[in-house]
Amino acid sequence: MRIERSVTTVSWIPSDLLEGMGKMATRMKMAHHDPPPPDSLGPDVPAVIYDLRVNDRFRFANQLRAFVEVDDRESIIGHGYCGGGFIGATTVGLGVGSITIPAVQLDDLQREPEVGDTWVRFTQTVGGRTGAPMPRAVNHPPFIQYHAPIVWTTLELTIHTDGSHQAAMVGASGFPRHWLFDHSGALVAKSSVAEYKKWMNDSFGRRTPWGDEDSPALVTEVETLLERELQGAIMRGGKKPDVRRIKEGKALVEQGSVSDELFLLLNGVLVVEVDGEQLAEVGPGSVLGERAVLEGGARTATLRAVSECKVAVVPADRIDLDRLSALAGGHRREATG
Predict the structure, then answer these.
(1) CATH number at residue 238
(2) Does residue 176 have a cis bond before it (omega within 30 degrees)?
(3) What is this structure's pTM?
């Protein structure tokens, strides 16, 4: 019997992650950010990946697909990889027109599978760099880089002889945003921290999986569907939101303080604390602060930055109370401010 399972990442550039030279390039229409990938890739993941690639909707995708062959006694008699990487292209604006430059895909790194009595674990790294040059100064030899930094994700997939499996994103470049999809094609997790400047400075040579280093991926669960819908109202529903940066270890709000602001976490991870106890961690896309609006204005929790965070802040009257009530009811975490 052949058991085949998969896990996939799609990596893309949200508009709010670009900084410095990258933001300037988009304003000059020499580069572009990406619309979000779909919430589900559906049952035919390769076909959807191909369609996204043709329409310039992502930077690269990593599909780790693998199989285990099992005999009648559920002994492992074979195994192997059958997935790989898909690299996008870079569209560069040139005055009244544009050109599309193929990206450079590096060799897929597929480690020798680990084999146990009832399981096989596969690990695959996929990535590359844009074909467009990005000359810049860096802090270490050779001190000037001409080629673009390297992007990648590293996926791990364990297939058991009973048909069950586990999958995770265990490594990733610090830029762009990486979304993780399960075997059915459903979005299940996201990379939480994108560090554009650090990525520009570090991600080349030995500081990549094709050298001798990988970077662990900080991953959080996906936000609710309602939160995804509210993001548009917060970011594009009138006056631009106030964007704040919260340093690692600092609080966005303190339990017991009074305000009527809503928060959309754009980048980083916040921990929810009640009476000093950490109850949950939330990542990009989370909408926070509705309970204070619904329950009299006092914050019911402290929101503290696990990493440096970027947060959009708007008055609560930007969202109607019915939607705030639905948001509060859909949150499983305790007291979100």
Answers:
(1) 2.60.120.10
(2) yes
(3) 0.86
